[in-house]
Write a structure and sequence with these properties.
The complex is a heterodimer.
Chain A: H1 2-15, E1 41-45, E2 48-50, E3 56-60, E4 67-75, E5 81-89, E6 96-97, H2 115-118, E7 121-122, E8 139-147, E9 170-179, E10 186-190, E11 197-201, E12 208-214, H3 224-230, E13 235-239, H4 258-270, E14 274-284, H5 286-297, E15 305-309, H6 327-330, E16 336-337, E17 343-344, H7 346-349, E18 369-374, H8 382-395, E19 402-407, E20 424-428, E21 434-437, H9 442-465
Chain B: H1 3-13, H2 16-30, E1 40-44, E2 47-49, E3 55-59, E4 66-74, E5 80-88, E6 95-96, H3 114-117, E7 120-121, E8 140-148, E9 162-169, E10 176-182, E11 185-191, E12 198-204, H4 214-221, E13 225-230, H5 239-245, H6 248-259, E14 264-274, H7 276-287, E15 295-299, H8 311-325, E16 327-328, E17 334-335, E18 360-365, H9 373-387, E19 393-398, E20 415-419, E21 426-430, H10 435-457
Parallel strand pairs in B: 2-9, 12-13, 12-14, 14-15, 15-18, 18-19
Antiparallel strand pairs in B: 1-3, 3-6, 4-5, 4-8, 5-7, 8-9, 10-11, 11-13, 16-17, 20-21
The chains are: A alpha/beta, B alpha/beta.
Amino acid sequence: MYGVWEGLSQSIHACTLPRFKKTSGIMGAVRNKSAQSTAPLLTATPSRALVDQPIEIGIQHLPPDKPFTVRSRLHSEDGELWEAFSHYRSDQKGTVILSRDQSLGGSYSGLEPMGLFWSLQPVGVEGLRLRKKYVETPFTVEVSVLSDHVRSSDSPVGCHVGQGLEEGAVLAAVNVERWYMAPGVRRVEVREQGLVGTLFLPAGPGPFPAVLDMWGMGGGLSEYRAALLASHGFVTLALAYCGHEELPGPLHTVNVGEQYFETAMGQLDRHPQVCTGRVGVLGLCFGGYLALRIAMEMPNISPRCVVGISGPGGLGINMTRDQTNDFLKENQKLFRFDEQGNVIFRGITMPSNVPPNYKLKVESLRCPLQLIAAEDDQCCAAIECIDEIEERLGAVGKSGLLTRIQYPGAGHLIEPPYTPSVRVSLFHTYPKKLMALWGGELQPHSVAQEDAWNRTLGFLDHHLRTD
Amino acid sequence: MRVGMFMNGARILLYPRFVAGLNNYKRLITTMAGKGSCPLITMQPSRGLIDEKFQITVKNLLPGQAVTLHSLTQSEDSDFWEAFGHYVSDGKGTVKVAEDVSLGGSYDGLEPMGLLWSMKPVPGSRPGLRFRKKDVCTPVVVRIAVYTGHIGDGFTEASALARAVTERSYMAPGVCRTDIRQGGVRGTLFVPPGPGPFPAVLDMWGGGGGLVEYRSALLASHGYASLALEYLSHSEGQNAWASQSLEEQYFETAFTILKDHPRVASDRMALLGLSFGSSIALRLTVYSKVVNPRCLVCISGSHVQLVGNSISNSFHEFNMNINGMTRTDDNNNLIWRNLILPIPTEANRKVQVGRIKCPLLLIVGEDDQNWPTAESAEDMEKMMEAAGNRHLLTTLSYPGAGHLIEPPYSPHARASNFMLFPQRTKVSLLWGGETKAHSYAQEDSWQKILMFLEEHLYVSPNGVPLSKL
C-alpha cells in the first residue's frame, strides 16, 4: 500500500501548486507608508477550488458607506488578459460580501456571488474564447478591490502623498486558483487501436462508472471537461475525432467511422477500473450528434445513458471522409452572416434543411437521453432538433427515455459553470479567418451553465452509479 | 498487517498481478445488485489551507452499512501517520463526516476534522515522532479511504471501497516567501498578496531551535506579514553565531527589519511566541526601547527568567538546571515543568509584566508537562492586577491541552524526540495533553488568536478598534 502511495505522491505532485518562486507581489508599486491605516482585508475562500465550486468573497475594514469596485483578472495560457468589474457599496460596518450584496453595475449587476468569474471578458483582443489546455495546472484569478466605481483596466496602485487615494486605486488583492482536476485524479494519454484521446481516472481502486466525452467541430482534443468529470468520480475519456494531427487527415473533415467510436466505448467498458456496463456518453454540438448516433445507430455498443448539449439530430451536410471539397463553399446557402460578418451556422442543422437520410434513426434509441439546448443558440438549431426528436420518440412510445432542458437567453457553448462565455469567437483561420456567432447573453448564459452542469452530473450519477 | 512488509510487496503488485486482481475484483463488484456498487468519496474543498475545515461525504454505500473511514499521510521524514473512524451509513447509503457520529477508532463522536487531528504514527513506526512541515511551498497530501466493516488495521490499497485525496497547504496563492539574511538576522518573511500595507507579526518558536516557517506562512495567508525568526541554530558551525543571537539586539534588529518593510504598516505590529519564544516576547515588550508591539500573543510561555542579564545567560541557567531537577514519567520521557517552579518572588527573576502597555493574550494548556504555563499565567495575572494593567490581559486556559499548541488539525504528540541545545544530545520530552482536548485547544486558540490580531491590528478607518474578544 505504501509503495503505491509513493507513486501516487509523485503523480499528485504534478497537480499540486507549483514550487513557489520569489516574487515582488502582485502589484509593481507599493502604497505610501505615510498612510497610518492598513489595507482592507480581502478574503476569497476557498482560495484553491475546482472550477465548478462557488467561493465566498468578502472585504472588511473598508470605510463605511463608500463606493468600491471589485475586479477580477486572469491571464490565459496564451498570455491574453481577461477582466471583469463590479460596483458595490460598503455597509455601515465597512464590509462588502458578494454573496449578500447587490452589484450596482459593471460586468454584471444584482446578487451574483460568482459574477467575477463568469463575466470575465477578453481585454483589447477580439474573437477569444477561454479554454484550458493544460489541465494539471489551475487558472489563477486575481481578485482585487479598488476605491470608487471605476471601469478602467489601467488602475494605478498607490497614492500621492498628502492627496489621499487616487480614484480607482487598488486597495487589496488576493489570488484564487481554479482547478479542473481534483488531487489524486490521474491523466493518461490514449494512443492505442487508432484512438486519439486522454483518459482521466479518479483516485482510488474503483471500479467507477465511465463517460465518453466529445466536443464539436472545432476539432482537436479538449480535456478540461473530462478532467472535471473525473474529479466527480467518473473515469472519463476525452476523445478527439477530427482536427487533430494524429488522426487521419485532412484536418477539417471527419475521417473516422463508426468503428472508431465502437473502439473507444469498448476500451472504456473493458478498462479494469470501470464498472462494466456503466458507460455513458456526453457530447456538445457535433459531439452531441455523435453521442446520439452511438445511442441510436451503433448496435454493437450499449451506452447506459447519453447527454447531448446543443447538439443536432442530423446534419444538412455530409461530414464524413467522402467529402473532399471545402464544406463551407458547398453549403454556403445554409449559412447566414450577421452585420459584423460573423457566421451563423444554425441553418445546417435546422431539421427542415436536413435530408431524411441524414437524420438519425431516433426511434432506435435504447437508453435514457438528456438533451440540453439554448434558446439563443446561433450555431445549432438545437431546440428545433429536440422538438423533432421528442415527437419521433413519442410516436413509438419512448417519451419516457427523454429529458429535455432548455435555457432562455443562453448561447451555444454551454460549458462548466462559473467559466467565462463569449457571444462570438474565432472558429477557424482556414481558408480565411472566420468568427462564429454562438449567441447568448452573459447573465442568462451563466445561469444555464450552472444549472446544466448540476443536471448533467445528477443525470450521470443517477443512471451510471445507482440502479 | 505490518506496514514495512507491505510497502515492498505493493510495488510488485501494482503491475500485471495487481491489474489481474483488479479485474477479478471488478467482476465481483459489478455482479453485486442494488446500491453499494461504485461508492464515491467526495471532499469539499479538495484543496484547502491547513486550518480550513472540510466536508467528507461517502455516497452509494448500502443502507445501514458499517464502514471505516481511514486517513493516511506521509511526513517529510517518510513516516506514515493515520487515523480512522467507524461509521454506519444512513438509509440512502450515505455517510457525512461533518454530521454523523464516529462510533470508535482513533476518535469518536461528532468530529468533522477527526481524520486529521487524531492521526498517529502507523504501527511499527519509529518512536518519538512529531509531525512538522518544513517545506511550506508544497501541501500536506492526505489520502482518505473507506473500508467495509469496522476495522482497526489491514488498511490496504486493494481492499478500499473508495479513495479520495486532499491537499492541505500552509500558503495561500499569492503569498510571497522571502529569505531574510540581513543585519545578522536569519529568518523567513511571508507577505500576503496585494499592495498592503499589512499588519505584521514577529513569530518566534521555542528552545528546539531552527527555522520553523509554517505558522508564519499561515498568518500571511490570513493577511499578516509575518517574519519567522531563527534564533537558535542546529548547525554545528553556527555555535558562535548562535550564542550571539540570544541578545536583545538580535530581536530588535529583526523587529526593525519587519517594521521597515515597504509593505508593512509600521504601527500595526505584534509579537507571537510559543514556549521560550513567549518568554522572549514578554521580555522584549517590557524592556526593549525598540520593540513596541501593538499587541502580544504568548502560547505556552512563562515570564520567569533571569532579567537584567543577557538572554543567553537566562537560557544557559535554565539549561544547567535540567539534569538536577528533571523528572521522568513511566516511559522515560523528561518532564521539565518543575525546572522553574516555584514561581520566584524576586523581581529580577521574572519579567515585570506590570509594565506591559499593550493587550496580551496568554494561551495555556492545563496539562502542560514541559513548562509551568498555568502557574506562570496565574502569577502574571496577580502582578498585572497589582500594577493596574490587568485589563490588558486575556487568558485562554484549556483543560487537557499540552505544551505544543499549534495551528489546528495537526496531529498531537504527547511526547517526542528533542535535540538539546547546545549540547546536541537527543532526549524524549513529555509535552502533555490528551489528544481530543489538545486538538480542541488548537482549533479554538487559533481562531481566537486570529480574532485577537484582527481586533488590535486591523483598525477601521475611524480609528476605533472592533469589539473586544
